[in-house]
Known about the structure:
This protein is 37% helix and 15% strand. By secondary structure, it is α/β, with parallel strands linked by helices. The mean pLDDT is 97. Bound molecules: pyridoxal-5'-phosphate.
Amino acid sequence: MEKPAICGGAPVRTTPLSYGRQFIDAQDIRAVTDTLKSDYLTCGPRITQLEETLCAVTGAKYCVAVSNGTAALHIAALAVGIGPGDEVITTPITFAASANCALYCGAKPVFADINPETYNIDPASIRACITPRTKAVVAVDFTGQAVELDEIRAICREHHLTLIEDAAHSIGTRYNGRPIGSLADMTTFSFHPVKTVTAGEGGAVTTNSRELYDKLVLLHAHGITRDRSRMVHPTDDPWYNEQAGYGYNYRLTEIQAALLISQLSKLELFSARRKEIVARYDDAFSQIPQLQVQREIPQSDTTRHLYILRLRSEMLSCTRREFFDALGAEGIHSQVHYMPVYWHSYYESLGYERGLCPEAERYYREVMSLPLYYSLTDQDVDDVIHIVKKLIAYYTK
Ligand SMILES: Cc1ncc(COP(=O)(O)O)c(C=O)c1O
């Protein structure tokens, strides 16, 4: 049997691969440099163009571009009116921001368990978490796969809860043929560089509700308006603006907007390549009993942001850490998405205890993310598959 590099064998890869990477071309660079030479670096026409583009991509009526996905979640939670005494249900298998947005508002994040096959929040567990204090659900399209929106929307309707869809991973995904972004009360996006399209840093909230949109506009820019109809003391003074509400400076710059508009023009290309890579991995790994392949719900036509390799640990003689290190020694720099949010020491200090979501905790012990990004070549993908197969053969009990 071929030895893995960590045990003295020769590594397959001479150039390492990371789990995610942006793709920037000459068009993106031109978009940024043109903007730098233009009259506006912030609050200009590119933000409007970006918001219109995101509406077209998502099918939403309204969009507010913001500085990052965390800011998007924060203003979405504020727009709902979440505050002290409220509870917000979310998944533990996510980036901390999905839960932190409740903390920012003085509310309590409540963690529902995941489905052990799709890794998304389990609608039955959402139901079990609802109390009279529940105000909203933050449902995360983890890895890019849409959550079970029909079921979750029905639960939210029944209990008068607002649904915020955290689509940081899922731009380009469709649910029952409709693009993510117009299917929840509000949908939040992140455009961090490992995501399918990037602004360097960036985010957005989309919604079909005029009322929520008006709140989001104020919240993302100091609560200040130039719209007379929204002023308490409107005047004719041309300089006059009024802080009519509560707000932050969560604006995106024109430079970021220009980059993102250019990236969005390649979304279909990016999405198609990601689907090809996922299909190659799935084909190879579904034949290996020591691995569990993420189950796709039929409603989701997924643009995958992350590819999760899940070990069936009972069939292997190694720990996840040993497998992770062995991948690294072969030049595959993996990452783990994610440790359950409530395992973070800060959440521990708030009183959250281990054992809360058994499926999420089991998931966390068995997973790592494989390289998945537009510019991976077929040879790169074949190398990853070869290395995974080699390690599985080596570590099989
Ligand atoms: C699921 C999820 N939600 C929210 C965020 C926050 O986005 P940002 O990093 O743009 O603030 C991320 C970022 O990685 C994420 O993965």
